[in-house]
Design brief:
The protein contains one helix and 38 strands. Among the domains are: 67 residues, no CATH class; 135 residues, Sandwich (Chondroitinase Ac, Chain A, domain 3), CATH 2.60.220. The chain has 543 residues and is mainly beta.
Length: 543
């Protein structure tokens, strides 16, 4: 395919009321050639394709890329020395990627630093593990309350079982360590595999005898809706208590505790050795299962409904590509707002499978993208908007007065009513509310951080000096379960101060949260988090 070349021009258009400018130029000679297939343009989800070049290929640079549906980049960045994993948007609208520092000799991926970019793609921050550990490149989550989830590895020398094949005495065995960092990058929770498994009972084969024994090679982690953690390797999924550190349940693998319903049970155990797994808004889990690497099983996506109390996993949806996609490592599945599933296939060697595919709930392909060189691969692929395009919705009102002021106009409804008791200011005034579907930027709190809804409200005014009002938020508008558990938090964004919890009540008859409003600023909703277990003490000899 002839390399795509941009026409030198400036495109200016309005998206969501915001003027966007982009300058187009010729692509670099080492930029990967890309082919996109649009099967149904009207059915494709909103946003752009986020991919990377995640491996060494002669003549191809290490790139971060955001692509149009025709495969043409709207933004890209070449990395100078090594590739990156896991390029995505976080709940606060900032972008992150895992810059590889050193490849592991005993597991896929490698040591990395997680780099943060703002809406203008400038690097503004980095994340690294604490207590002497180094982050792995596979996964990273910046939570809506400002905390972060990372994992890495540690190596331990141990004499293994005499029954082990190959005679692996004094072997070096890897273990995984998961950390939760607070807004100050301090460890508030730490979980290490060998604190919960018997290291000495491990057995190995002859291939392990002269190398590091790779155990617990994590692919993915995430915060579940109840505040506990989900982690997964190529063999299993486990749920970890953030209160005790204990394993709450095992799904898949040799320790599977679940009855698998609606699918062949023997086959389905392999569905839970995912490269990516996360909880959906409907309560189900979506899992991306890589191929077996032997050409006998295609990579595929599955959705399960979990009954955790009775240990039942019911298969409710799947997508198995035809022809098969034999991707052996990496990959992810993302449920889009329109109900489609966006699949990043990961790496398939030289099989020339797609980089990513988007399918409808009925399993119909609407979009697919390929690298022309089959050796080029992306660790994961996502569909997100551009950061600058996320502007939220706003409503302004002139001459607000005593009583209820609803901030909605036409088809725009912020879900906010401000009941003004009194105010001081000039005769002419303007008050505005902007609701943005993003978590707050760098939030801090007085006391433990709550679980935060990824929506922020900004309330401001001209011509009003002081105000005594009641903030009324529509619970239905924020799509919350158990709304009575939530509290309204406020901060002044012009000052480096934490969010303050406002006395909040919930009116079930009206379906509204009510909180006193004495100042303008930024407002969010949060509910109490779990009381976390104390961090494990680190034995420095284990590092």
């Amino acid at each position: 395919m002839a390399r795509k070349v941009f026409i030198l021009s400036i495109l200016v258009w309005v998206l969501g009321g915001v003027c966007v400018q982009r300058v187009e130029a010729a692509l670099p000679a080492n930029f990967p050639a890309i082919t996109a297939h649009v099967y149904d343009a009207d059915a494709i989800g909103e946003g752009y394709v986020y991919v990377t070049v995640s491996g060494k290929v002669e003549g191809v640079g290490f790139y971060l890329m955001i692509l149009n549906n025709d495969g043409v980049p709207v933004w890209y960045k070449e990395l100078p020395h090594e590739c990156a994993f896991d390029f995505k948007m976080q709940p606060n609208g900032l972008l992150t990627y895992a810059q590889l520092l050193e490849r592991h000799s005993y597991a896929d991926g490698g040591n990395a630093v997680h780099v943060v970019m703002n809406k203008d793609f400038a690097e503004v921050d980095t994340f690294q593990m604490a207590n002497g550990y180094v982050a792995d490149a596979h996964d990273f989550h910046w939570l809506s309350n400002g905390h972060a989830l990372l994992f890495g590895y540690y190596l331990t020398e141990v004499e293994l079982s005499e029954a082990a094949l190959g005679g692996c005495s004094n072997a070096v065995v890897s273990g995984a360590v998961v950390q939760e960092l607070n807004a100050d990058r301090e460890v508030v929770f730490e979980w290490r595999t060998w604190d919960h498994y018997d290291l000495g009972s491990h057995t190995c084969d002859g291939e392990d005898a002269e190398s590091i024994v790779c155990e617990f090679p994590l692919n993915t982690l995430g915060m579940d809706v109840d505040g506990h953690l989900l982690i997964a390797t190529p063999d299993w999924v486990k749920k970890i208590s953030r209160q005790t550190g204990q394993i709450l349940w095992h799904l898949g693998g040799d320790e599977n505790e679940f009855t698998l319903v609606g699918v062949d049970a023997e086959e389905a155990v392999g569905h839970f050795g995912p490269s990516a797994l996360h909880r959906l808004d409907n309560g189900n889990v979506l899992t991306y299962d890589s191929s077996d690497g032997m050409g006998t099983c295609s990579s595929q996506v599955h959705e399960y409904r979990l009954d955790e109390e009775n240990r039942i996993a019911e298969h409710v949806w799947s997508y198995v590509p035809d022809p098969p996609v034999l991707a052996r490592h990496g990959g992810n599945a993302q449920r889009l707002a329109n109900g489609n599933t966006f699949i990043g296939w990961g790496g398939d060697g030289d099989n020339h499978g797609p980089v990513c595919t988007e399918v409808t709930p009925e399993g119909q392909k609407v979009f697919e993208l390929f690298f022309d060189d089959p050796a080029v691969e992306s660790y994961r692929a996502f569909r997100f908007p551009l950061p600058a395009d996320i502007t939220g919705v706003g409503v302004t009102k002139q001459y607000v007065g005593i009583g209820d002021n609803e901030f909605k106009r036409g088809g725009v409804d912020t879900g906010v009513t401000i009941r003004i008791h009194s105010y001081t200011g000039t005769g002419y005034n303007v008050m505005g509310v902007v609701r943005t579907p993003l978590a707050p930027l760098y939030p801090t709190f007085e006391g433990p951080a709550p679980q935060v809804v990824p929506v922020r409200l900004q309330v401001g005014a001209n011509g009003i000096n002081t105000i005594n009002a009641r903030l009324l938020l529509c619970a239905k508008s924020f799509h919350l379960t158990e709304p009575e558990t939530y509290t309204v938090y406020w901060r002044n964004p012009k000052e480096a101060r934490p969010f303050l919890a406002l006395p909040t009540s919930y009116d079930p008859a009206a379906g509204t949260f009510c909180a006193d409003m004495m100042e303008f600023g930024e407002f969010i909703l949060g509910k109490p988090d779990l009381e976390l277990a104390a961090s494990a003490k680190v034995n420095r000899s284990d590092l």
